[in-house]
Amino acid sequence: MQKNTESQIESSLLLGGQALRKRFSLKYGWIFLLLAFCVLWVMFSNPNIADHIVAKLAELKKVPTTEALIPTTRTLKGPTEPPKPTSFCSFHSVLPEDALELEFLKNYITWPETPSVPDNFSLTDTSHAAHSTFTILPRDGGGSWHVGDQLEVLIKINDFNGRPKKSGGDVVFARLHNPTVHAGVVGKVFDHHNGSYTAVFPLLWEGSAQVEVTLVHSSEAVTVLDRVNQEEPGRIFFQSLFHSGSVTEATNCNVCLKAPPEQLCNFTDTRTREPWFCYKPKTLKCEHRITHAFKGYVPQPTAKEAKLFQSGVNLKTSIQSSEPSRISILPKLKVLNETVPVNMS
Ligand SMILES: *[C@@H]1O[C@H](CO)[C@@H](O)[C@H](O)[C@H]1NC(C)=O
Ligand SMILES: *[C@@H]1O[C@H](CO)[C@@H](O)[C@H](O)[C@H]1NC(C)=O
Ligand SMILES: *[C@@H]1O[C@H](CO)[C@@H](O)[C@H](O)[C@H]1NC(C)=O
Ligand SMILES: *[C@@H]1O[C@H](CO)[C@@H](O)[C@H](O)[C@H]1NC(C)=O
């Protein structure tokens, strides 16, 4: 619907341009060009006018739907219309054909419940890489590893006192690799929700292969990250400057902001529908926006929570193997029951 209106506007502009060209003779054309150039030069040498044009163009871009032609204030405060929801981050604009994929992605990234992290939490009760271990499990059916087999690795997460964790939710990465032949494969990690995990690798090359397991985040860190994401979905914030005459104002901007629509400038892309908002400046108008910049991260974790994000301790830290972590992979076993053509003679 919106697309149609847009292309109609575009095509009528094109047709208008063609008609104009036909009606103009070459002689008048030169005078017209000269005049047009003068006007453009005057306009763009004056930044205020240029700003104004840019703002007007931005407004024009928003016009295509008839809905947008109704003044915003009326749409919002019309007595017969129910008030628009003041909820923020309403990302329910998923197309029906994308709903299934969205559901799939949501299920795919579902995370198990993680331990609560109260204000008085004790760091010693949380997952600690140095006290955690992994072991390569014997091959199914015994014997040597061959290309095409599956390798299973059992990972046990312990706390700072070496006590086994009783719940899951740690972010654990596992890889099998051989740097000398530039071979590597990522392991699929299964969470048993009791402090132990199994990583499963396909064996894809012959020769040596080394298992590496990394504690990316403790389950307690996941709890904190989850809470922070709920409180501040943006996590990082942006700022725009609004400028007109001698007045300059700055406000924060993001994909979603906690405010009713009338307190926001809506810079949502009308074509891609990608949302973008800034808080409305106090005195200036939305169209006075002149810059866009990254400003920082929110919120900062408390000093105590920060202890859950220590590089080399519980953030992206290697977990050691309790036994050798290297295996040798032999060539693929010949399939014994391979069908042989019968009438070969
Ligand atoms: C934290 O405080 C709660 C009560 O508010 C108490 O039950 C709990 O044992 C405390 N935890 C620690 C680790 O001190
Ligand atoms: C954890 O769960 C797995 C799978 O259910 C089980 O094999 C394992 O024995 C359990 N480990 C502990 C310590 O309970
Ligand atoms: C922002 O603008 C877009 C498109 O112009 C519109 O679809 C959306 O409803 C607006 N959002 C709010 C909160 O005003
Ligand atoms: C060969 O053995 C595999 C399992 O080892 C089996 O899945 C497959 O069906 C067998 N093929 C034939 C032709 O018997």
From TrEMBL:
Identify the InterPro entries for this entry: Ig_E-set, NXPH/NXPE
Parts of the chain that traverse the membrane? 28-44
Keywords in UniProt for this one? Answer: Membrane, Transmembrane, Transmembrane helix
UniProt record, GO biological process = nervous system development
Q: Which PANTHER family match?
A: NXPE FAMILY MEMBER, NXPE FAMILY MEMBER 3
Protein known as: Uncharacterized protein
Specify the species: Poecilia formosa
Supply the source organism's classification: Eukaryota, Metazoa, Chordata, Craniata, Vertebrata
